[in-house]
Design brief:
Number of domains of chain A: 1
Number of domains of chain B: 3
Number of strands of chain B: 2
Oligomer: heterodimer
Structural class of chain A: mainly alpha
Number of helices of chain A: 5
Helix content of chain A: 55-70%
Strand order of the largest sheet of chain A: 1-3-2
Shape of chain B: elongated
Number of strands of chain A: 3
Mean pLDDT of chain B: 81
Strand content of chain A: 5-15%
Radius of gyration of chain A: 19 Å
Strand order of the largest sheet of chain B: 1-2
CATH architecture of chain A: Orthogonal Bundle
Mean pLDDT of chain A: 89
Order of helices and strands of chain B: HHHHHHHHHHHEE
CATH topology of chain A: Arc Repressor Mutant, subunit A
Number of helices of chain B: 11
Order of helices and strands of chain A: HHEHHEEH
Largest sheet of chain B: 2 strands, antiparallel
Low-confidence stretches of chain B: 149-153
Low-confidence stretches of chain A: none
Largest sheet of chain A: 3 strands, antiparallel
Strand content of chain B: under 5%
Largest interface: A-B, 19 and 19 residues
Distance between the termini of chain A: 35 Å
Shape of chain A: elongated
Chain lengths: 118, 326
Amino acid sequence: MDATLSGHLQELRRGTVVVASLIVLRTPGYGYSLLETLSRAGFEVEANTLYPLLRRLEAQGLLTSEWNTDEARPRKFYRTTEQGDAIADTLRSEWTRIDSAIGDIAKTTANDKTGSAE
Amino acid sequence: MTSLIDRYVYTALRRIPEQQRGDIDRELRASIEDAVDARVEAGEERETAVEGTLTELGDPDRLADQYSGRSNVLIGPEFYPAWRRLLTLMLAAVLPIVVIIGVVVQLFDDPDIGKVIGGAVTAILNVGIQMAFWTTAVFVVLERTGAGPGRTGLRLDWTLKDLPRYEPSTVPKTEVAAGVVWPILLTAALLWQHFGLNEVPVLNPANWSFWWPYMIVALVIGAGYQIWLFRRRSYDRTVSVVNAVQQLLFAVPLIWLLASDRFFNPEYHHFADLNGGDVKHWFTVGAIIAVALGTLYDIVKVILRGEQSRRGLPSKVPGTGNYNFG
């Protein structure tokens, strides 16, 4: 049962990390900082999926990157592009739409139940 | 001495395209160091912090796959159905044909039962493995090169037309295909044993004046019958009659040639190789029985199908265990 649940949870969460990353990186950040921010915000994301994901988003033109060598440890900073911003907005409104759709459908079903019981 | 982090990074980079390695190397090290620092700040020893961080990052080969966007499957879900269909077709339809050709060639070459069986088994194994390997190899290349079905021009997409018809009266496609291929193979074998071999032809060359050309014409008529039947789409009494005629056109002269000893070349003396018995005689008797039974079976089968579809009796739906009661 646990395996079933975690499988469904994983499927439901797939894609949310992309939205969250694009939103967070409106202010430039590097891999580990983003990982920290996301896990503090309650996103369950592994380092080994997040780091490759950042490079993929960059290749798609949704993020740009720049090496910051000012500090002792050089870090690659990512920032959301305009295109990434637009996509993040679209994805977010889709998320909201799905959320309210699920709320509606749950409400309708509950009403039907009480309706038929009467 | 290379550190644990070095070993991890090198292992991951092994499987990443060269032009990306420098950048990923720097970034991955920075990320690992950041994570280690965070653990050390939280009170861990540096050594355990490194171990914990790398363990959390997991299998470096998988990480490399994720970085290079490579799928870690041999044949993905996009190609799997097409791969399975093609492989089934190769093994179920093409392999038997190849094996039969091999057996026929061996029979003419040296009809030793041990060699025939041995050759057939070897052919099944060799050709089967080759077919499975090359079919799979082609699909692996398609998968790797990222050529989607849409871009390869192969019709891999499923459409409604791919649904089998399952109509009881419908002519089975495989039988039609076999009915067309078989005459071609026989004609080729007939020509080849006479013109292709440098030795004495197995079959009687005297028959080239009439009977062999006649047989080729009968075979062509047989192939034409199959195509006619396929386009007609169903069995009935007309089909039963036409089928019986075309079967007898071929079988009766063949049996007569065999029975009157006009079939084999009198100059061909390689029959007596087996145990000193009269192999030619037994071969002739066997061939007569096989041709007669095969012809009879086919005529009866077609008549039964015709009756079945005429009366609308429930018939077994081909390819499934079901009966069609429609």
